[in-house]
Design brief:
By secondary structure, this protein is α/β, with parallel strands linked by helices. The chain has 3 domains: 4-46, lambda repressor-like DNA-binding domains (434 Repressor (Amino-terminal Domain)); 57-157 and 292-319, 3-Layer(aba) Sandwich (Rossmann fold), CATH 3.40.50; 159-290, 3-Layer(aba) Sandwich (Rossmann fold). It is built from 13 helices and 12 strands. It has helices spanning 4-11, 15-22, 30-43, 49-56, 72-87, 102-108, 122-131, 159-172, 186-201, 221-234, 246-258, 276-280, 292-307, and strands at residues 61-65, 91-95, 113-116, 135-139, 152-157, 178-183, 211-214, 240-243, 268-273, 286-289, 315-317, 320-322. The strands form 2 sheets. It has a 6-stranded parallel β-sheet, covered by helices on one side. It is elongated, with a radius of gyration of 23 Å. The relative contact order is 0.13.
Length: 332
């Protein structure tokens, strides 16, 4: 196993310089820092996390909490988190705890900070007040107020503007009966509000049957499939469907095809994410593009800064509309 002295020898610098680089001190020139990091990569150096923890009272671990480990959406975000955390000497644990296992998970697996991709429920807030560690919350919508009882910041996307853009494009393509399929919960309540706000802005009619809300522990194709069947039965005059994520949208497209409808002639579909599945679905799915790797990377940076007691501000990403073959009449 490589040591810091091995790195110093390969990079042609002192052991003290290696220590300053590894511990992220500022008093090192960019040229020397790059030499040291190149040697770290070449020797595949791994810091002794346990020894560091004994000296600093830190675990040098963070946790990423997600609702569904099978959803590739979180894999890309996790990659961004883990790459940055690893470069700073941290490891990243991945959890999908249930409400019943929250306490057991965190008291048996101590970490220095959390990145959450789940709704911030009241029981979870109570737990976070108890364990008192920094939290970065990944959410579709930036909340109006941050909780004051623990260190907390958000990384979000400007979904409200994205939904407004989608409705504008669909309205311009002569779609007037536009439906929404969404999952019940904190983020998706906000998605519903954005949909209603945009429909009102363009004077488009909507009723309860145009909005299909489903409950599911996981993000997969089946809720979209079931929701589309309900939509076909209750509002067959709908011509466009917005879904809360790509997998839901692809499941809905599959249901429409199974019932003999042609996409996009009979129904146009738009998802939110822009996953690999969206690019290779049949037809390819138009999407609101979310910057997942970047979201993960900035989440990791923010959390480690918070752990170091640095000032951190919440971040909101812009979105981009990606036009593909699942929509009819839209031109960018």
């Amino acid at each position: 196993m490589a040591t810091r002295d091995d790195i110093a020898k390969l990079a042609g610098v002192s052991s003290a310089t290696v220590s300053r680089v590894i511990n992220h001190k500022d008093n090192v020139s960019d040229e020397l820092r790059e030499k040291v990091l190149a040697a770290v990569r070449e020797l595949d150096y791994r810091p002794n996390i346990n020894a560091k923890g004994l000296k600093t009272n830190k675990t040098y671990r963070i946790a990423y909490i997600i609702p569904d480990v099978t959803n590739p959406y979180y894999t890309e975000i996790y990659k961004g988190i883990n790459e940055y955390a690893f470069s700073q000497g941290y490891s990243t644990l991945l959890f999908q705890p249930t409400a019943e296992t929250w306490y057991e998970t965190f008291f048996n697996n101590p970490v220095d900070g959390l990145i959450l991709a789940i709704d911030l429920s009241t029981p979870l807030k109570q737990l976070l007040r108890t364990i008192k560690i920094p939290v970065v919350h990944q959410t579709l919508y930036k909340p109006d107020n941050d909780p004051k009882e623990f260190k907390y910041k958000t990384v979000s996307h400007d979904i409200e503007s994205a939904v407004l853009k989608i409705i504008q494009l669909l309205h311009g393509a002569k779609h007037t009966k536009i439906a929404l399929i969404t999952k019940k919960g904190e983020n998706h309540d906000m998605l519903l509000k954005s949909y209603i706000k945009a429909m009102k802005k363009y004077n488009l009619p909507y009723d309860a049957h145009q909005i299909v809300s489903y409950e599911s522990e996981n993000y997969n194709y089946f809720p979209g499939y079931e929701s589309m069947i309900r939509l076909i039965k209750n509002r067959p005059d709908v011509t466009a469907v917005i879904a809360n994520n790509d997998l839901t949208a692809i499941g809905a497209m599959s249901a429409a095809a199974a019932y003999g409808f042609c996409i996009p002639r009979d129904f146009s579909f738009i998802g939110i994410n822009d996953s690999v599945a969206a690019r290779y679905s049949n037809p390819s799915l138009s999407c609101v593009k979310l910057y997942k790797y970047q979201q993960g990377n900035i989440s990791g940076r923010m959390l480690l800064d918070m752990i170091a007691d640095k000032e951190v501000a919440s971040v909101e990403f812009e979105t981009e509309f990606v036009l593909r073959k699942s929509t009819q009449g839209i031109t960018k």
